[in-house]
Amino acid sequence: MDCSSCYHNSHILCVVLVLSLSVGNIAGFNLSTISFDEGYAPLFGDGNLVRSPNGRSVRLLLDRFTGSGFISSKMYKYGFFSANIKLPADYTAGICVAFYTSNADVFEKRHDELDFEFLGNIEGKPWRFQTNLYGNGSTSRGREERYQLWFDPSKEFHRYSILWTKKNIIFYIDNVPVREVVRNDAMGSEYPSKPMSLYATIWDASNWATSGGKYKVNYKYSPFVSEYKDLVLEGCPIDPIQQIPMASTCSESNARLDTADYTIITRKQRLAMRRFRQRFMYYSYCYDTLRYPVPPPECVIDPVEKERFKDTGRLKFGGSHQSHKRRSRRRSKTRVVSNNDDHIM
């Protein structure tokens, strides 16, 4: 499809069609799903966590009293974490739906974290999302990227996945890689390397999630519901302190991880990732010279991207999920001031 023939008003639609066509040519992953009780447990807001009758799916609710969340029953050192997720519809400003790995409950001052964070919006405006990572407590060095989606995530389920290996990290949406972080020696301990759990949460992030806090959660529209099904936990459980495998099959599990179809980015996938990042990424920490005059060591600087993103810094971010349970239980009354909040997309 040639976008050069599109009129200005239909340009975005044309871009979406091009990406959708390229995504449609990518084969789905070969995944084994589990039930909720096989791999997860409630984290907080138990009354707002609703299992399906067959236990294969779960809903998380946010109301004026509390958010909710679940956590994997075990911790993993490297793995593949995935779910089909559907986000709340209509007015969702101030809401953060997070799907992430972390070990903050065990390593409070030097925790690791890998994030998908979906940021709600006012009615009629699209959801946005960001990816992020922290290693060994490097919470002062956020590695956020922000994007739009090429679909409405509240209309139907889409698969979101995090691959974490000793060599690289890949964030996937519907089998399309949207971000890859390749480990290098200069990252040192800031590359996540300690066992982590998988989390899913919905909570009130009114002080930063939408236009830097300009638009808050409106509980007139509650409860807000995020849905999860086709859950995947691939990896070998590890004791977080002794880091001793909890099963003798870790070598088999690691071998499966190393040879799985989601471990290697194919040529088609890399092309789809490039198209996605060219069209839908609107912030990257690698080009935010206000935060990082010298880009962090894992950044690969593209001169074209650098020119495109030269004015995209100075957004507001929510930081680590280290205190997510406390923030989720009670709406923050603290207003954080920013002179250059990101605008409604």
UniProtKB/TrEMBL annotation:
Query: So what EC number does this one have?
Result: 2.4.1.207
Q: Where is the composition biased (Basic residues)?
A: 322-334
Q: Which domain of life is it from?
A: Eukaryota
Cite the GH16 domain residue spans from the record: 27-228
Q: What class of enzyme is it?
A: transferase
**InterPro entries according to UniProt:** Beta-glucanase-like (IPR000757), Beta-glucanase/XTH (IPR044791), ConA-like_dom_sf (IPR013320), XET_C (IPR010713), XTH (IPR016455)
Which compartments does it reside in?
Answer: Secreted, Cell wall; Secreted, Extracellular space, Apoplast
Major localization listed first in the record, in broad terms: secreted
> What processing steps or modifications follow its translation?
Contains at least one intrachain disulfide bond essential for its enzymatic activity.
Q: Which Pfam families match?
A: Glyco_hydro_16 (PF00722), XET_C (PF06955)
Identify the keywords attached in UniProt to this record, alphabetized.
Apoplast, Cell wall, Cell wall biogenesis/degradation, Disulfide bond, Glycosidase, Hydrolase, Membrane, Secreted, Transferase, Transmembrane, Transmembrane helix
Instruction: Extract the ranges annotated as region (Disordered).
Output: 312-345
Which spans are transmembrane here?
12-31
Q: Which family does it belong to?
A: Belongs to the glycosyl hydrolase 16 family.
User: Sorted alphabetically, which PANTHER family does this protein's record hold?
Assistant: XYLOGLUCAN ENDOTRANSGLUCOSYLASE/HYDROLASE PROTEIN 8-RELATED
Function of the protein: Catalyzes xyloglucan endohydrolysis (XEH) and/or endotransglycosylation (XET). Cleaves and religates xyloglucan polymers, an essential constituent of the primary cell wall, and thereby participates in cell wall construction of growing tissues.
Q: What is this protein called?
A: Xyloglucan endotransglucosylase/hydrolase
State the organism's lineage. Eukaryota, Viridiplantae, Streptophyta, Embryophyta, Tracheophyta
